[in-house]
Design a protein that fits this description.
The complex is a heterodimer of chains A (about 70) and B (about 280). Chain A is mainly α and about 70 residues long. Chain A is about 65% helix and about 0% strand. Chain A is globular. The termini of chain A are far apart. The model of chain A has no long low-confidence stretch (mean pLDDT about 90). Chain B is α/β, with parallel strands linked by helices and about 280 residues long. Chain B has a single domain, classed as Protocatechuate 4,5-dioxygenase, Chain B, CATH 3.40.830. In chain B, strand 9 and strand 10 form a beta hairpin. In chain B, helix 2 crosses helix 5. The longest helix of chain B has 23 residues. The radius of gyration of chain B is 17 Å and the shape is globular. The model of chain B has no long low-confidence stretch (mean pLDDT about 95). The chains are: A mainly alpha (about 70), B alpha/beta (about 280). Chains A and B meet through helix 1, helix 5 and helix 6 of A and loops of B.
Chain lengths: ~70, ~280
């Protein structure tokens, strides 16, 4: 169960501009140390927000990550 | 003996551009009409001249991370800052012209905490949490250029399961009312957020609301019939997109058995907007 880790990654993407830049440049590398399932990691790498939400990612984080979210 | 001199609840994204962009002209017009009503409510609030303003609202994962999410949290300390965020969402960017710091009513905040521990409410305390649109959009619209009383920000976990129950939120409001009654101050209490939006917190359902649910709860508040509201389950609140009603339930507990008067109700589609006042005189 890595709902916690999914949301930790989303929270870092929202709050940590340097991490966000690394993620934009190379998402798989930026997430190398994150404790995610293959399915979660794949959703992040593809930036499939709807799938991340279905996997437990907070709607409010998904909607508010600069450059990746959007209402 | 202290008393509640004003009580109200209202939606908290009071930003016409947001609804203009995301809903269209009718969304913009609806929130502009709501803003006019909230400004009018602010005249009654200011006339009540409260010594403190308790603001019950929720965190949108701006303040609390998944490392620790308190069910309830009281902001303590001498002052509280307006939240500043890099690349903030548009309705938080709209706060940028507001004052950077607001006084906190320390004595009331501390009383809520300390008497809570004596009365079965282990509220979290924060000395650093800052205020986003959920607090400052309604407060700034209510007060405009008028001076604000010291605030007591009170957070309710509306979005990270498991949330506090409707019954528990109502009971927390009863506690707030007891503390106010035992104190020395005239206090205004407002709750913010809602009404229905984003059912099930599902990205696929952004843009939907449950207007039938909202019409029903507004009628119950106007009737002062709080039992069906406190019986709402987490599942019902989740499915109807009424997570932020938990803020309102704290307020209902504080003002019960007073009845509400709907000052505004609008069904936008993306969200239902509302503003209600309670007859606490």
């Amino acid at each position: 169960m890595s709902r916690y880790e999914t949301n930790v990654v989303l929270y870092r993407l929202k709050k940590d501009p340097a991490f966000r830049d690394r993620f934009r440049a190379d998402p798989r590398q930026a997430l190398a140390d994150a404790d995610l399932t293959d399915e979660e990691r794949d959703a992040f790498v593809r930036w499939d927000a709807r799938r991340l939400n279905e996997l437990g990612g907070s709607l409010h984080l998904l909607l508010s990550i600069p450059g990746l979210g959007g209402h | 003996m202290g008393r509640i001199v004003y009580a109200a609840a209202m939606s908290h994204v009071l930003y016409p551009d947001y609804y203009g962009q995301n809903v269209g002209p009718h969304g913009r017009r609806m929130v502009e009409a709501l803003i006019d009503v909230v400004r009018d409510m602010g005249r009654a609030l200011a006339a009540a001249a409260p010594d403190a303003l308790v603001v019950i609202a929720d965190d949108h994962l701006n303040v609390f991370s998944f490392d620790a999410v308190p069910a309830f949290c009281v902001r303590v300390g001498r002052s509280v800052k307006r939240m500043v965020q890099d690349d903030a969402i548009e309705f938080d960017r709209a706060l940028e012209g507001l004052p950077e710091r607001y006084p906190v009513h320390e004595d009331l905040a501390n009383s809520l905490l300390e008497k809570g521990l004596q009365g079965g409410f282990d509220f979290a305390a924060s000395w650093s949490a800052s205020l986003d649109h959920a607090f400052l959009s309604p407060v700034s619209t209510l007060y405009g250029e008028r001076p604000l009383p010291p605030l007591v920000p009170f957070w309710v976990n509306c979005f990270v399961a498991p949330q506090p129950t409707a019954q528990r939120c109502f009971a927390a409001g009863r506690h707030i009312a007891r503390v106010i009654a035992e104190g020395l101050w005239d206090v205004a209490v407002i709750a913010t957020g809602g009404l229905s939006h984003f059912p099930e917190l599902s990205l696929a359902r952004v843009g939907q609301s449950d207007a039938g649910f909202d019409r029903r709860i507004v009628k119950l508040m106007e009737a002062g019939d709080y039992e069906p509201l406190t019986a709402l389950t987490a599942k019902e609140l989740h499915e109807s997109g009424s997570h932020e009603l938990l803020n309102w339930l704290v307020l209902m507990g504080a003002v019960s058995p007073a009845r509400a008067r709907a000052r505004f109700f609008g069904e936008m589609g993306r969200i239902d907007l509302a503003a209600l006042e309670w007859d606490v005189a």
